[in-house]
Amino acid sequence: MKVTVTGATGTLGRDLVRALLGRGDEVTVLSRDANRARAALGEVEAFEWKDPKGEPPPADALEGQDGVVHLLGEPVAQRWSQSAKEEIRDSRVLSTRNLVAALADADARPGVLVSQSATGWYGARGEEPVDESIQAADDYLARVVVEWESEARQAEELGLRVVLTRTGVVLSESGGALEKMLPPFKLGVGGPVAGGRQYVPWIHADDVGGGMLFCLDNPAASGPVNLTAPVPVTNAELSKALGRVLKRPAFAPVPGLAVKALYGEMSSIVTTGARVVPKRLEDLGYDFRQPDLEQALRSATGR
Asked: How far apart are CA 297 and CA 290, in angstroms?
């Protein structure tokens, strides 16, 4: 395939580009700095998209491609000041709007758009399993995801197959959630957060890339697709498994009030959760590469 990737120099983007190149695909990337992207990613064609929020990408990066994977977005895991919330929203919604505008202008359009989304769509859902049929919540992050997905779905009017990959908490050896979890656990002071009963919709980075490739290739994949592991776990279960992997105690509870004091409104994504299941992926026959939590943690931590 000929595939264009945005956000290719991010943690997930680098993994995806490696996987695409590894199977012989031709990869084009859109980056604010094309030279840096080429240096970081290797055998790719790179085009500059200096202002994703303010302008469409160059048409040459999309013409004649088979598919597009759109991964741009400001990190959510930061304290949510008003300016940070605006950037989190605009980096997703406006960049997607501009990407679709460029697709509308293309003469030879790609056949599929895989647009990154998030399990933030579901909000705090308690213990009830939730799949792609569940309506969106009404908190800040869910509203962002609703707008984000709505912009991507405009590409359906252009004849593209659109897949919205609602990605959970990614376990990766090169950043993401584990990067923030590891230091206290390595010191022996890790443990469940805010009681630990909230569910964590985790997924290994191998299955983020694998799931995206599956959605690119499979003509039956469309609409929302949860990129989460088959068996979601609670925060307490995740903490115990990480403690076993690191051979460190994992019993030091972290009070929810302490997390809120540190992170403010953003703490809600740690202290609440949803029991998200990947029904669509399983129905389509995706074979998970890292379905077991402890093995996934060993892979992501090099243990």
From this structure: 9
3-state helix, strand, coil in the chain (%, to 5): 45, 20, 35
From residue 276, how far is each of 42, 79, 93, 149, 222 by CA, in Å? 35, 24, 23, 18, 18
What percent of the chain clears pLDDT 90, i.e. is strictly above it? 82
What band does 258 get if pLDDT is binned at 50, 70 and 90?
confident
Determine how many CB atoms are found less than 10 A away from the CB of residue 225.
27
CB distance 152 to 96 below 8 Å: yes
Q: Exposed/middle/buried for 31, CB within 10 Å: 0-12, 13-18, 19+?
A: buried
- Distance (Å, whole) CA 49 – CA 94: 13
How far is residue 130 CA from its own chain's centroid? 18
Q: How far is CA 205 from CA 118, 168, 288, 299, in A?
A: 14, 10, 11, 10
Predicted pLDDT of residue 23: 95
**Tens digit of each residue's pLDDT (9 = 90 or more) over 241-256:** 999 999 987 777 777 8
Q: How far is CA 187 from the centre of its chain?
A: 28
108: buried, middle or exposed (CB in 10 Å: 19+, 13-18, 0-12)? exposed
Nearest to 272 by CA among 170, 168, 125: 125
234: β partners: 199
CA separation, residue 63 to residues 107, 220, 249, 290 (Å): 7, 23, 54, 35
DSSP E strand stretches across the chain:
2-6, 26-31, 45-48, 67-70, 112-118, 129-130, 161-167, 169-172, 175-176, 199-200, 202-204, 223-227, 233-234, 275-276
User: CB under 8 Å to 24, separation ≥6 — which residues?
Assistant: none
Residue predicted with more confidence, 100 or 181? 100
> What are the residues whose beta carbons fall under 8 Å from the beta carbon of 162, sequence distance 6 or more?
112, 113, 115, 152, 153, 155, 156, 222, 223
Q: Which amino acid is at 50?
A: K
